[in-house]
Amino acid sequence: MERIIITGALGQIGTELTLKLRERYGEENVLPTDIKEPEDEQLKGKPFEILDVRDMDRLKEIAATFKPDTIMHMAALLSATCEKDPQLAWDINMGGLVNALELSREFSLQFFTPSSIGAFGPSTPKENTPQVTVQRPTTMYGVNKVAGELLCDYYFEKFGVDTRGLRFPGLISHVKEPGGGTTDYAVEIYFEAIRTGRYTSYIDKDTNMDMMYMDDAIDATIKLMEADASRLEDRNAFNVTAMSINPEMVANEIRKHIPAFEVDYDVDPVRQGIAESWPNVIDASHAVRQWDFEPKYNLAKMTEIMLEAIRNK
Ligand code: AKB
């Protein structure tokens, strides 16, 4: 991995991934792309290309000029947005993925794309969800993710494309807020704790989902991409997680820093339904064994950092 194109670079993961990769591989070797111009000061005025991932001609034009050896395909709609317009979700999530994989085949690129805990469904074992298990999701996002995981395996087996990927849990960060996900509450709650001292959660207080601090997610992505290929038995869609938490647990942790913090609940049936169809805690032992996955942040450490960073904004 030396010259990297990133799709969906203005999203929650893409923004921090771009900054970290530029630091590590040099600004001239990382080309972020997205459907609109960047507004973030850290990305403005630096190399950037407008790209709708459904436009294969434009994707090829960018690759022919930039000459990458890697593509990190982050562009996708998240779970709650997908439920509002499933047709559009298929178009962007699957159309974009096929284009990025085809580009990798044609230009011999190393390839990364995230899957998600959304690739699991109500019939999946909820506790210690294994790497290989029942995957019958009931959301369009989940259908996209399962199909995507299989497609990535197919491109490796059939065409020899070096595809790699992680099943991300909810990701928590202070740099860029997510949009349209089921796990977004776990970011909003920190921002509201600082802004207003109170938060109304759309997810019920005792609904557990896997989560991870963004620094761990970015480190895991780079570690997997740089891992020795001969150690990778699973290759795509590795389960990764750092904590299994619910809104009440996050609220209690925030109260250690802001004792007057108040939380109430106005449960959204759509996002609550999605959350209940996902695992409570997944098993990340394959990632640990095959490429030394080792998250550094637990709820306490992450809460301290989130509150401090948002306060300083
Ligand atoms: C979402 O909630 O849709 C995402 C995810 C877990 O994939 N954060």
TrEMBL record:
Biological classification of the source: Bacteria, Bacillati, Bacillota, Bacilli, Bacillales
Q: Which GO terms describe its biological process?
A: L-threonine catabolic process
Gene Ontology molecular function: any one: L-threonine 3-dehydrogenase activity
Q: What is this protein called?
A: L-threonine 3-dehydrogenase
SUPFAM superfamilies in the cross-refs: NAD(P)-binding Rossmann-fold domains
User: What region holds the NAD-dependent epimerase/dehydratase domain?
Assistant: 4-231
A Pfam family cross-referenced in the UniProt record is Epimerase
Q: Give the highest taxon in the source lineage.
A: Bacteria
